[in-house]
Amino acid sequence: MADRVYLYDTTLRDGAQTQGVDFSAADKIAISEALDRLGIDYVEGGWPGANPTDDAVFADPPKLKRATWTAFGMTRRPGRSPENDPGLSALINCEAPAVCIVGKTWDFQVDVALGIPRADNIEMIADSIAHLKAKGREAQLDAEHFFDGYKANPTYALDCVKAAYEAGARWLTLCDTNGGTLPDEVERIVAAVAKVIPGERLGIHTHNDTENAVANSLAAVRSGVRLVQGTLNGLGERCGNANLVALLPSLMLKMGFETGVSEEGLTHLVSISRLLDERINRAPNRYAAYVGENAFAHKGGLHVSAIEKDPKTYEHIEPEKVGNQRKILVSDQAGRSNILSRCRDVGIVIPADDKRIGELVNLVKEREFDGFAYDGAEASFELLARRLLGEVPDYFTINSFRVIDERRWNALGKLITLSEATVRLTVKGEQQMTVADGNGPVNALDEGLRKALVPFYPSLKDIHLTDYKVRILTPQDGTKAVTRVMIESQNGKGERWTTVGVSPNVIDASFNALLDVLCYKLMRDKISL
Question: Where is the Pyruvate carboxyltransferase domain (predicted)?
Fold first, then answer.
């Protein structure tokens, strides 16, 4: 059996430090659940007590089936006992089964940043790990600035890590915190550490400041570490962290390691990479290794001729193994396998040779050309597919809608903006017209739709919107740009789903996404006409 490498995702903490990235609680829940489905071993939700978003997430954590939900924090403060340290108390009170604390291992930082005796720092690390263990948590240490510390004072850096090891830490992760270490240095230093602490207890955490985060992580694995930390798409402060999306297939397909991700799970790598991009409202990197749109793109000429004879000539792996597809730029091949995979994801069973698969491929390509993104909107994709298969009834028909926004001074002299929506629709043969106010046009439309539909479909009362994102698809068009709206919704059972709408009119795009929200709920409830 191949050696096992464990994967620890820090997207929700390290990734949140990326300039321009601000995860909501709904984002964190959705990304955690996607990582869980993929097969990641540890999902770090953030730092309890650090900000209201992380507090909200840890107060109502995602229901993970495979991954271990993990909290991040720091060692006890100088001069405090573990029992009386508010930071450690927050980590224990959040009830995450695993806790990773950061501790300093560079003597320079202990002297200058902490300003305490070096022996006290070692004691802080050991006390904190032992306290977490005593409280029934899986305790882990992030050895901050370990490589800088080792190069300056190897004995002290090792003493810090050994203290955590002897106190019972499950994982001791060596951190290249400023990203300045090169692969040959990582390989040499990790090999030296592995002579003192077993590799099956060691992890690696790298930053990308020299464009070597992935290479450094793989070098550490070669030298014995068996836990790799990283983020989706390499998010992180400064130049980013090690990119798990590149590390995962390299570990499995290139180096032959076993991970918690199955071969079938690996085929969802493109989807989860793009889901993250949709969540943070940015365009996917088309040149990203393994998952980029151009990762297996070939232009007409000799390359295409060679590919047709033997794909291995210019493709280092089969694109389908990571959920990607070959792209011949002169013909733009369709992706039947991708569509079949998406159908399986949402529980649609259809033979691969069914002619309707070709129709669905063409429909998806047309709609994605128009701006729809189904990797991040699984509910809208399921509706699209099942409608083509004739499995979704016409629950209602929209005849028209109108939204009026009024901005004025109220009786108290405050400037307010009011939204009013009028919706005309047909439900079970009956004409309905409703008028509703809302906190903005989208809320007014939502209220108007449900005002008309709930008497016929009472289960729609159970929905509330948890997230709303708008992305400009054609920025060169200014205020006339085509927009894509993503709406995340949740029912009373905590189940979430995401829908998408696209239009040059942001209200129209929002309305289309709202319609899918309601139709998806009715479909999942198996409501019949």
Answer: 5-267
Question: Which of 3.40.190.10, 3.60.21.10, 3.30.565.10, 3.20.20.70 would CATH assign to domain 6-261?
Answer: 3.20.20.70
- CATH fold of 397-524: Double Stranded RNA Binding Domain (3.30.160)
Which amino acid, residue 337? S
Q: What is the mean pLDDT of each run of 10 residues along the chain (529 residues)?
A: 90 95 94 97 96 95 96 96 96 96 98 97 98 98 98 98 98 98 98 97 98 98 98 97 98 98 96 93 92 81 58 86 76 59 83 89 89 88 94 96 94 93 96 95 95 96 91 88 94 90 96 97 90
Widest Cα–Cα separation across the chain: 80
DSSP assignment, residue 375?
T
Whether 213 contacts 242, CB under 8 Å: yes
User: What 3-state DSSP class applies to 396?
Assistant: coil
What is the residue type of 162?
K
Tokens in use for 248? 């995962």
- Cβ(496)–Cβ(60) under 8 Å? no
DSSP one-letter code for 58:
H
Is residue 380 a contact partner of residue 372, using CB atoms and an 8 Å limit?
A: yes
- List the structure tokens of 158: 């090792």
CB 89 within 8 A of CB 73: no
What count of Cα atoms within 13 Å lies in the side-chain half-sphere of residue 65?
A: 6
Q: Is the Cβ–Cβ distance between 144 and 105 less than 8 Å?
A: yes
d(CA 225, CA 203): 5
Query: b or e along 185-208 (b: 16 or more beta carbons within 10 Å of the residue's beta carbon)?
Result: bbbebbeebbeebebebbbbbbbb
**210 φ, ψ to 5°?**
-115, 20
**Domain residue spans in the chain?**
6-261, 297-388, 397-524
Q: Which amino acid is residue 332, in one-letter code? A: D
The C-alpha angle with vertex 457 and arms to 455 and 459, in degrees rounded to 5, equals: 115
- C-alpha span between 468 and 182 (Å, rounded): 42
pTM: 0.80
End-to-end CA distance of the chain: 54
Tokens of residue 357, six digits? 């698969």
CA distance 382 to 342: 9
DSSP string, 5-66: -EEEE-TTTTGGGSTT----HHHHHHHHHHHHHHT-SEEEEE-TTS-HHHHHHHHS----SS
Positive or negative torsion for Cα 409, 411, 414, 419: negative
Q: Name every residue whose Cβ is closer than 8 Å to that of residue 478 and which is 6 or more positions away in sequence.
A: none
What is the token pair recorded at 20? 């321009």
